[in-house]
Amino acid sequence: MMSTTAEYVLTYFPIRGRAEHIRLLLEDCKIPYRQNLIANENWKQLKARGPETGEIPFAQLPVLHEAGTSLYLAQSGAIARHLARRHHKYGQNELEASLADMLYDTASDIRQVYRDFIFDENWQAKRESFVSNASNRFALLEKFMSSRNTPYLAGQDTTFADYHLLEVIHIIQRVQSDIIRPYSWLQSFCQKMESRPNIAEYLKSSRRFEKPVPLPHA
Ligand SMILES: N[C@@H](CCC(=O)N[C@@H](CS)C(=O)NCC(=O)O)C(=O)O
Q1: Nearest residue by C-alpha to atom 12 in ligand 1
Q2: Which atom in ligand 1 lies closest to the alpha carbon of residue 74?
Q3: Residue nearest to atom 2 of ligand 1 (CA)
């Protein structure tokens, strides 16, 4: 949701990248935020002065700024967790919070496999092994989640981990559209996430960027 009375400003590039699960969380919870989209040609300058002004503490994006505070938060995982704590998306109890942490990191590991593949100059030759690796990782997640049998990763409601996993599935489906077909829990998870009204609206809106990363084949 875009708003003129934004609680948060999310600074990132005009791609989905590492910001997308943060956007999904903001959108699903209808938290007012504004996007500060940095074009490539402006990034060098901003990167050079960001650590000095405090606006980009570690010279990388995404960064979340909270309106009315001096807080400029870097690191996508820290941003997602910060919003989750503030907006009741960190589980109903400590066990759910720990599960959300574990499953967020599991989704990050799968995302890293995707990044290693997509940025590999021999990506075409490695497509099959990438798909097999990603599928094996989804199989383990499927096994774990089937044994718990909750609708969302940590329990009955979404946590920051669910938005991350949804985006990780979406980016890998761009490589292999039926990647989660063998996995019934993951399929039902995806359907549930995609049919949440605010997510459904966002996914088809012009606010959502088509590209996960700025590469022609991604
Ligand atoms: N661990 C950081 C990594 C941030 C990161 O790698 N950001 C990239 C974009 S996805 C970036 O700012 N690249 C531009 C640069 O380093 O100059 C996070 O999760 O936020």
Answers
A1: 60
A2: 20
A3: 75
The finding on whether 76 has its CB within 6 A of some atom of ligand 1 is yes
- Cβ atoms 150, 156 nearer than 8 A: yes
Q: What are phi and psi of 158, to 5 degrees?
A: -70, 150
Centroid of ligand 1 to alpha carbon of 64 (angstroms) = 13
- The tens-digit pLDDT sequence of the chain (218 residues) is 544 467 999 999 999 999 999 999 999 999 999 999 999 999 999 999 999 999 999 999 999 999 889 999 999 999 999 999 999 999 999 999 999 999 999 999 999 999 999 999 999 999 999 999 999 999 999 999 999 989 999 999 999 999 999 999 999 999 999 999 999 999 999 999 999 999 999 999 999 999 999 898 99
Domains of the chain, with CATH numbers? 8-88 (3.40.30.10), 94-196 (1.20.1050.10)
Residue 148 CA to ligand 1 centre (angstroms): 34
- Ligand 1 center–CA 3 separation, angstroms: 25
At position 145, the amino acid (one-letter code) is: M
Q: Is the ipTM value over 0.95, yes or no?
A: yes
